[in-house]
Write a structure and sequence with these properties.
The protein is α/β, with parallel strands linked by helices and 198 residues long. The chain is built from 9 helices and 5 strands, in the order βαβααααββαααβα. It folds into 2 domains: 109 residues, P-loop containing nucleotide triphosphate hydrolases (Rossmann fold, 3-Layer(aba) Sandwich), CATH 3.40.50; 75 residues, P-loop containing nucleotide triphosphate hydrolases (Rossmann fold), CATH 3.40.50.300. It has a 5-stranded parallel sheet, with helices on both faces.
Length: 198
Protein backbone atom coordinates (compact mmCIF):
# COMPACT_ATOMS: atom_id res chain seq x y z
CA UNK A 1 0.00 0.00 0.00
CA UNK A 2 1.43 3.32 -1.13
CA UNK A 3 0.91 6.23 1.27
CA UNK A 4 0.54 9.54 -0.56
CA UNK A 5 0.14 12.99 0.94
CA UNK A 6 -1.78 15.57 -1.09
CA UNK A 7 -1.49 19.30 -0.57
CA UNK A 8 -1.79 22.58 -2.43
CA UNK A 9 -3.01 26.11 -1.98
CA UNK A 10 -6.62 26.99 -1.28
CA UNK A 11 -8.68 26.76 -4.48
CA UNK A 12 -6.19 24.49 -6.24
CA UNK A 13 -8.83 21.76 -6.66
CA UNK A 14 -7.58 19.08 -4.26
CA UNK A 15 -11.16 17.90 -3.63
CA UNK A 16 -11.79 17.49 -7.36
CA UNK A 17 -8.61 15.46 -7.87
CA UNK A 18 -9.31 13.26 -4.84
CA UNK A 19 -12.90 12.60 -5.98
CA UNK A 20 -11.55 11.28 -9.29
CA UNK A 21 -9.00 9.11 -7.44
CA UNK A 22 -11.68 7.72 -5.09
CA UNK A 23 -13.85 6.77 -8.08
CA UNK A 24 -11.07 5.11 -10.12
CA UNK A 25 -8.62 3.47 -7.69
CA UNK A 26 -8.69 0.99 -4.82
CA UNK A 27 -7.85 3.55 -2.19
CA UNK A 28 -8.71 5.18 1.10
CA UNK A 29 -8.76 8.97 1.25
CA UNK A 30 -8.44 10.56 4.67
CA UNK A 31 -8.91 14.32 4.94
CA UNK A 32 -7.14 15.81 7.96
CA UNK A 33 -9.83 18.45 8.59
CA UNK A 34 -12.55 15.75 8.66
CA UNK A 35 -10.43 13.75 11.12
CA UNK A 36 -10.08 16.89 13.27
CA UNK A 37 -13.87 17.41 13.31
CA UNK A 38 -14.36 13.79 14.35
CA UNK A 39 -11.82 14.12 17.19
CA UNK A 40 -13.57 17.31 18.42
CA UNK A 41 -16.89 15.48 18.98
CA UNK A 42 -18.03 14.85 22.60
CA UNK A 43 -16.18 11.90 24.10
CA UNK A 44 -13.41 12.03 21.50
CA UNK A 45 -9.76 12.82 22.18
CA UNK A 46 -9.73 16.62 21.69
CA UNK A 47 -13.15 17.59 23.04
CA UNK A 48 -12.55 17.99 26.79
CA UNK A 49 -9.18 19.72 26.28
CA UNK A 50 -10.64 22.23 23.82
CA UNK A 51 -13.57 23.03 26.13
CA UNK A 52 -11.16 23.45 29.06
CA UNK A 53 -9.02 25.82 26.99
CA UNK A 54 -11.73 27.85 25.24
CA UNK A 55 -14.60 27.74 27.74
CA UNK A 56 -18.17 26.46 27.50
CA UNK A 57 -19.19 29.47 25.38
CA UNK A 58 -18.00 27.57 22.29
CA UNK A 59 -20.65 24.86 22.84
CA UNK A 60 -24.05 24.53 21.20
CA UNK A 61 -27.10 23.60 23.30
CA UNK A 62 -26.58 19.93 22.51
CA UNK A 63 -23.04 20.04 23.94
CA UNK A 64 -21.21 19.82 20.63
CA UNK A 65 -18.61 22.41 19.65
CA UNK A 66 -19.93 25.27 17.54
CA UNK A 67 -17.24 25.46 14.83
CA UNK A 68 -18.03 29.09 13.98
CA UNK A 69 -17.80 30.27 17.61
CA UNK A 70 -14.61 28.31 18.07
CA UNK A 71 -13.11 29.86 14.92
CA UNK A 72 -14.05 33.37 16.12
CA UNK A 73 -12.17 32.78 19.38
CA UNK A 74 -9.19 30.97 17.88
CA UNK A 75 -8.44 33.18 14.89
CA UNK A 76 -8.60 36.41 16.88
CA UNK A 77 -5.66 35.35 19.08
CA UNK A 78 -2.46 33.76 17.74
CA UNK A 79 -1.51 32.47 21.20
CA UNK A 80 -4.81 30.58 21.54
CA UNK A 81 -4.51 29.32 17.94
CA UNK A 82 -1.11 27.85 18.78
CA UNK A 83 -2.57 26.11 21.86
CA UNK A 84 -5.49 24.68 19.85
CA UNK A 85 -3.09 23.43 17.17
CA UNK A 86 -0.97 21.79 19.87
CA UNK A 87 -4.06 19.82 20.95
CA UNK A 88 -5.56 19.00 17.56
CA UNK A 89 -2.60 18.38 15.21
CA UNK A 90 -0.87 15.59 17.22
CA UNK A 91 -4.24 13.89 17.79
CA UNK A 92 -5.02 14.00 14.05
CA UNK A 93 -1.61 12.58 13.20
CA UNK A 94 -2.07 9.76 15.73
CA UNK A 95 -5.52 9.00 14.25
CA UNK A 96 -4.10 8.94 10.71
CA UNK A 97 -1.32 6.54 11.77
CA UNK A 98 -3.94 4.25 13.36
CA UNK A 99 -5.98 4.30 10.14
CA UNK A 100 -2.90 3.53 8.03
CA UNK A 101 -2.14 0.53 10.25
CA UNK A 102 -5.77 -0.60 9.99
CA UNK A 103 -5.73 -0.42 6.17
CA UNK A 104 -2.34 -2.19 5.99
CA UNK A 105 -3.74 -5.06 8.07
CA UNK A 106 -7.00 -5.16 6.06
CA UNK A 107 -5.08 -5.29 2.79
CA UNK A 108 -8.00 -4.11 0.65
CA UNK A 109 -6.57 -0.90 -0.87
CA UNK A 110 -3.55 -0.09 -3.03
CA UNK A 111 -3.25 3.58 -2.00
CA UNK A 112 -3.82 5.58 1.17
CA UNK A 113 -4.19 9.31 0.51
CA UNK A 114 -3.79 11.92 3.24
CA UNK A 115 -5.15 15.37 2.35
CA UNK A 116 -4.01 18.14 4.67
CA UNK A 117 -3.56 21.89 4.31
CA UNK A 118 -0.51 21.75 6.61
CA UNK A 119 0.94 18.56 5.14
CA UNK A 120 4.43 20.04 4.79
CA UNK A 121 4.44 22.12 7.98
CA UNK A 122 3.25 19.15 10.05
CA UNK A 123 5.95 16.87 8.54
CA UNK A 124 3.67 14.33 6.91
CA UNK A 125 6.65 13.52 4.70
CA UNK A 126 7.77 11.34 7.62
CA UNK A 127 4.57 9.27 7.26
CA UNK A 128 3.94 9.30 3.50
CA UNK A 129 5.93 7.56 0.78
CA UNK A 130 5.54 10.64 -1.42
CA UNK A 131 3.92 14.08 -1.39
CA UNK A 132 1.85 15.50 -4.25
CA UNK A 133 1.31 19.18 -4.95
CA UNK A 134 -1.95 20.11 -6.68
CA UNK A 135 -1.11 23.33 -8.52
CA UNK A 136 -3.33 25.95 -10.09
CA UNK A 137 -2.32 29.47 -11.08
CA UNK A 138 -3.11 32.20 -8.55
CA UNK A 139 -5.68 33.87 -10.84
CA UNK A 140 -7.49 30.54 -11.36
CA UNK A 141 -7.58 29.88 -7.62
CA UNK A 142 -8.84 33.38 -6.87
CA UNK A 143 -11.63 33.00 -9.44
CA UNK A 144 -12.69 29.64 -7.94
CA UNK A 145 -12.79 31.08 -4.40
CA UNK A 146 -14.89 34.04 -5.51
CA UNK A 147 -17.28 31.95 -7.65
CA UNK A 148 -17.55 28.71 -5.66
CA UNK A 149 -17.11 29.87 -2.07
CA UNK A 150 -18.39 33.43 -2.54
CA UNK A 151 -15.27 34.96 -0.98
CA UNK A 152 -14.40 38.56 -1.69
CA UNK A 153 -11.28 39.10 -3.81
CA UNK A 154 -9.63 40.58 -0.69
CA UNK A 155 -10.45 37.57 1.48
CA UNK A 156 -9.22 35.15 -1.19
CA UNK A 157 -5.97 37.10 -1.55
CA UNK A 158 -5.44 37.22 2.23
CA UNK A 159 -5.89 33.44 2.61
CA UNK A 160 -3.56 32.76 -0.31
CA UNK A 161 -0.90 35.08 1.15
CA UNK A 162 -1.02 33.12 4.42
CA UNK A 163 -0.10 29.83 2.74
CA UNK A 164 3.22 28.41 1.57
CA UNK A 165 4.72 29.80 -1.61
CA UNK A 166 4.70 27.78 -4.82
CA UNK A 167 8.47 27.31 -4.48
CA UNK A 168 8.02 25.81 -0.99
CA UNK A 169 5.31 23.42 -2.19
CA UNK A 170 7.45 22.32 -5.15
CA UNK A 171 10.55 21.86 -2.96
CA UNK A 172 8.80 19.29 -0.74
CA UNK A 173 6.59 17.46 -3.25
CA UNK A 174 7.91 14.89 -5.73
CA UNK A 175 4.74 14.95 -7.88
CA UNK A 176 3.09 18.10 -9.27
CA UNK A 177 -0.41 17.84 -10.79
CA UNK A 178 -1.44 20.87 -12.84
CA UNK A 179 -5.12 21.69 -12.32
CA UNK A 180 -5.90 24.92 -14.15
CA UNK A 181 -9.28 23.85 -15.49
CA UNK A 182 -8.93 21.15 -18.16
CA UNK A 183 -10.03 18.19 -16.04
CA UNK A 184 -9.27 15.59 -18.74
CA UNK A 185 -5.69 16.84 -18.70
CA UNK A 186 -5.57 16.79 -14.88
CA UNK A 187 -6.87 13.21 -14.73
CA UNK A 188 -4.39 12.13 -17.41
CA UNK A 189 -1.58 13.34 -15.13
CA UNK A 190 -3.02 11.28 -12.25
CA UNK A 191 -3.17 8.15 -14.46
CA UNK A 192 0.44 8.75 -15.55
CA UNK A 193 1.52 8.43 -11.90
CA UNK A 194 -0.92 5.80 -10.57
CA UNK A 195 -1.70 3.70 -13.65
CA UNK A 196 -5.21 3.13 -15.01
CA UNK A 197 -6.90 2.12 -11.78
CA UNK A 198 -9.50 -0.48 -10.83
Amino acid sequence: MRIIGITGGVGAGKTQVLSYIEDHYRCRVLRADEAAHLLEEPGQECYARLVALLGRDILKEDGTIDKRRMADVVFSDKHILAQVNAIVHPAVKKYILEQIRYEQERGAVDFFFIEAALLIEERYDLIADELWYIHADAKVREKRLVQDRHYSVEKAAAIMRGQLSEAQFRKHCSVVIQNNGDLAETYQQVRAVLGNGK
